[in-house]
Amino acid sequence: MEPTYAELKKQNDRLQIDLNKTKNALEQATLENKKAEVRISYLQSTLDHLDTCIYIKDTERKYLYANKKTLKLFNCTAEELQGSSDLNYFPKDTCEQLSQIDRRILELGENTNFEVESKDNDGNRIVFLEIKTPLFDKNNNSKIVGLCGLSTDITERKKNEEVIKESQQQLKILNNTKDKLFSIIAHDLRSPFYGITGFSELLIENLSTTEDEESKEYIGLIDTLAKNTLILLDNLLSWAKSQTKELSLKPEKLLLSEVIQEVIVLKKSLSKVKHISLNYEPTDKIELYTDKNILQTILRNLISNAIKFTNKGGKIDITVTTNKELIEICVSDNGVGISKESINTIFELSNTTVLPGTANEQGSGLGLILCKELVEKLNGTIWVESNVNKGSQFSFALPTSI
Fold it and tell me: Which structural domain range is residue 7 located in?
């Protein structure tokens, strides 16, 4: 009996050891299972809180899983979702579109993204951005076992894009209308003023030898008004182009004295009406590389502004100083001057104070604002110094080459 007892004891000990191993393995498996459940719970909670529809389908395109966002969209429970298809939740034409995409993913294993339109339960249009990817067997990377889809509601974004697109079309129409208006201003409206100013100058010259002072005065007023209006039209066109980025630079090599003298010739008749002397003495032959039309526009406006605010019998001096890198041009007058308060806003569009000239000339105040923008376009700076009843000095500095 003793040998038998000993053998049974050995077998019992081995069984006890195996039992302990099995118990430990079971406890370890239970622990791992709990960890997996926690991870799954966290993952499920994360997916359910996303503002994106997430779902999984099998190779037959039947639903296996969906997060809360998807279930809410489909208006069903997780149990009702199991084994259902797109036909349960979407119109037929939408299902046909989804079917083509799903088959491509399941057959070719391609990732894809696309937009799909459908209708909600109330018949309202909804648009989704669909991102889908194939799911592979973990033991066989070439075997597709289903697909995973992410669907984001982009209905509002789509509406906004369409509104923007429509607005762009309307803006294009408005821009075309604006361009047409500018064309009319630039050609059809400006041309008559050149005729008026030409005839008024002829009349002034013909009357210069007569004693009809009243006619001279009236014709002088016509001449001044026409030229000031023409200046306003030119300023409006230049400013509009600068605001719409249509004012392009065309730099060329220039002789500064020639540019200044050309502008003075244009302004002689305005200064003559008010008996204002317009003085400029060319010195050295100063050359610079810049845009001639823009430079002339700046000079025309500064000289016109000086004439406007200088009393009859006054004077305007144009001077130039230079070094190797900068050229400084100054237009000074002995007119009414500018108050310290006004100087701070004289180049700003927000400045709504537009004063009449010494001969009651009217203006828009746009000239000086345009000067600042154009000087800066030429990579220069502009400033003003003034004293009330003593005159003003407008200066701007430009690089010798843009």
Answer: 1-46
**Whether residue 75 sits in one domain with residue 14:** no
Taking the C-alpha atoms of residue 257 and residue 280, their distance in angstroms, rounded to an integer, is 9
How many Cβ atoms from other residues are within 10 Å of residue 151's Cβ?
19
Amino acid letter, 79: E
How many independent structural domains does the chain possess? 4
Burial of 326 (0-12, 13-18, 19+ CB in 10 A): middle
Q: How far, rounded to the nearest angstrom, does the alpha carbon of residue 145 sit from its chain's CA centroid?
A: 48
Same domain, 327 and 371: yes
Q: Pick from 132, 153, 174: which residue ends a domain?
A: 153
Nearest to 346 by CA among 292, 383, 378: 383
Using CA atoms, how far apart are residues 254 and 288, in angstroms rounded to an integer?
5
8 A C-beta contact, residue 289 and residue 253: yes
Strands (DSSP E) along 19-174, which ranges? 53-58, 63-66, 112-119, 125-137, 140-153
* pLDDT tens digit at each of 402 positions of the chain: 666 667 666 777 677 777 777 777 777 777 777 776 667 677 777 778 888 899 999 999 999 999 999 998 888 999 999 999 999 988 888 888 899 889 889 988 888 888 888 877 777 888 889 999 999 998 888 899 999 999 988 889 889 988 999 988 888 887 777 766 666 565 556 656 666 776 676 776 676 555 566 676 677 777 777 777 777 777 777 766 666 666 778 899 999 999 999 889 888 877 887 889 999 988 778 899 999 988 988 998 899 899 989 999 999 999 999 887 899 999 999 999 988 888 888 888 666 566 777 777 766 667 888 889 899 999 999 999 999 999 999 999 999 887
Separation of alpha carbons 137 and 258, rounded Å? 84
